Amino acid sequence: MKWKMTCLTMALFLFSMLFSQQELRAAPYYEGKMLKVIVGTQPGGGYDRTGRLMAKYLPKYIPGKPTAIVENMPGAGHIIAANHIYNVAKPDGMTIATYNRGLPFAQLTKAEGVRFDIKKYSWIGSVAVEPTAFFIRADLPYKTVDDLRRAKDPIPVASEGLGTTGHQFPLLLIEFAKLNLKIIVYPSGAASRLAIERKEADGRAGSYSSEKPFVDRGVFRPMIRGRVSEPEIDKLPVNEDLTNDPKGKIIMAMLASVDLIGRPFMAPPGTPAEVMKILRDAFAKATKDPELQAEAKKFQMAVEYVPAEECMKTLDYLFNQPEDIVKEFSKYITF
To answer: Is the whole model's pTM more than 0.90, yes or no?
Structure first.
């Protein structure tokens, strides 16, 4: 009997040890840790709002509920932030970033300073599909595309710099649709919108969701859209239809393709698969959070999870273009 009791005691001891070890192994990876969200722009624009929104709600759906902070790292059309996450940040899931959806173009066109391979990032996905449109100040007399072509003087258009959609979209309208525009560079999306409100500039291009508050306030009027659309702008002229140049149509289609990427989030290359599953699952759940959706609606932002696999399809489309097409594309899309 004593021998049986000793065996039973030993078995219970081993079981408790095994259970404790399993509990230890099961401790949430993110528990007690800090998640840094890097935003490749200055504070105040659409990417910044998206980054801060996800930083607020994402920890709720990550086991262990880490603390999240936002770090703005602007410069070079988001290339500085992209280089940092690729070359400096540890691939441990504690640093993620959101970038300009046009960042693939920097690599495609071999832009100076690029030290990353866009397809080797650990893609989390995107939180939106972002149709691009061109807007004019609503108090101006321009009502049609022909009005924009026949303007007596070049219409000043605000952009955030070479590597942004706000610069690239109107540049192609000038080149292929023959609109009489003049691009003026400002340090951020917020600064360029302020320039329009101050009547220093007359128009800009950007994500419809980012500019919609200004449309609703009667400051902006949408005039032209890219091929990716949504119901409110579906009847606008499409930029590709405003030119008969086959080359121009292809270049505009390539530019529009990244609208399907929208507002992407990535982690450093080499981030472990089990950590990426945590992040992707959390992103998918966070985008459906009722409080997040209510806050996004307040800022007139559309938030919907786009899986990493869908983002990769867009990258495959871009990086499988013939060399001669990429060469032509590179003449217009610069950083």
So the answer is: no
Residue type at position 91: P
- 105 plus 148 within the same structural domain: no
b (16+ CB within 10 A) / e for 265-295? bbbbbebeeebbebbbebbbbbbebeebbeb
**Whether residues 146 and 239 fall in one domain:** yes
CA-closest candidate to residue 107, choices 84, 79, 88: 79
pLDDT tens-digit profile of 191-222?
Answer: 999 999 999 999 999 999 889 999 999 999 99
CA–CA dist 48, 71 (Å, integer): 10
Mean pLDDT for the chain?
92
| CATH code assigned at 203 | 3.40.190.10
Distance, CA of 97 to CA of 107 (rounded, Å) = 17
- Residue for token digits 């832009």? 111
